[in-house]
Amino acid sequence: MSSEDNATKRQISAAPHFEGFFKVGEFVYDPDADWKELRNGIVVCRDGDWRITFSPQRECPSVDEPLTMYKGRLARHVLIDYSGLAAPRGPAIDPHPWQKIAAAARALLRDSDGYRIELDSLLESLRDRKELDSELLEDTLRMLVSMGAATLSIVSGKLLFAASEIVSEGLARRKYLATYSDDLLARSRRIDHLIRHTGTVGSYREELLRGTLRQLLPKRFEASTGFIQDCPRQLDVIIWDAMRYSPLFREQDVVVVPSAAVRGIIEVKTKLNTTTLDDALEILSDVLRVEQPVLPIFKGLFAFEDGYQASLSVAKRIQEFHRGKDELGRSRAYLYLFQGVTAVCVPNGSFVFQRYVVEPGVSENFPRPYLYGIQHDWPGDLSTAAFLSELMAHLDLDPAAKLTQRQMFGPVFTELETEKLLDLFGKDWRPQFAVSTLGKTLKPAGAQQYVQRVYDFLAGGIAASDVSAGLADESLRPASC
Length: 481
Hints:
With 481 residues, the chain is an alpha+beta fold. The protein is built from 11 helices and 19 strands.
């Protein structure tokens, strides 16, 4: 490959730089800088003048000069995620080759002493991975340093590549989160050695999960078993707001609570198979079937053993279930937004979760429910942590508390690669009704706005009270259970 072709492949521009190669707001770095002087730059436009800027760092002065005057080479920063930023990426680029290298480097750091490795040894280990593009290895490591995900230091004359402080904290946090699954499974296996009665074992496992939730939930919330008012199904786990609502009935651990108090529902199974999956979906679908919560509640299925070979098989069964009819001949298709199961989890096994997707550039379409899976190479279970994170995100906390909660669980998601499994209903699906507070969600624009606000709330960006603002349609009467 010629040097020019190699530079093009590596997304490197040589002087003189021109506007067509970059976009305004695009991040870059100097591919020839000393390892300890790497930093991000950005292409900006002031009064029609395209400029390149670098902030000062250590011994390096700031840079702010016309793009065409910059004499060094510039490389496009492929690893920076532009989602949520106004700045577009340059030409269409597939970031996966660089992302695969970054993931491999993180895995090597994760398993190393002190989360650091001699730079030459790291590069040698990455070159041994035939699935990685060797021409992009050094560029990727430079990007990680320039964006603050890694650092370089000299110890005993050796150049060491290390995870940054915030990344090191994240790696340690993931190891901690993985212990929740270890603890649950260890205690679950103990009962198998002593008791063969399936009902007793099942009840014990429900209590195991409730006990874990009690350790994690803020004091405001309780994890109980029981019923939601006016709905006859007994639920294995109800997560409800015990500070703002009193139970309508309580006898030891069994409660009856008003629907407004509920923030989560979980069905617990010993083994996930078609029978137990259908049973759980039936219960989760029936609860609040025609009573739409203004703020979506978490609906989960947690099983201790897996009877499926792949998450895709679970997703297909969920799709088959919801495209069918119940015993009364009623369609099981969703009637309103965020009605269905939020996540299905088996530690060290299947994990399926739901997201609503709006086709880019198609403003007249409704958001559609898709089922997703996860992939990771972490030496342990992250599915349980992801399940718990989804649950915790649904709690009605103020944004500051929710952001703190995300700092607890957020590191797990940087290790997970999501994969779209299937479209649950197809392009013709649309919500059939909405409570008056969300009446405008019966039109595409309102539905899209509502979905975006829900995800902003789950991420801690807005308060619960902001989710439904301006979406009311008083001509609609609230539905009831």
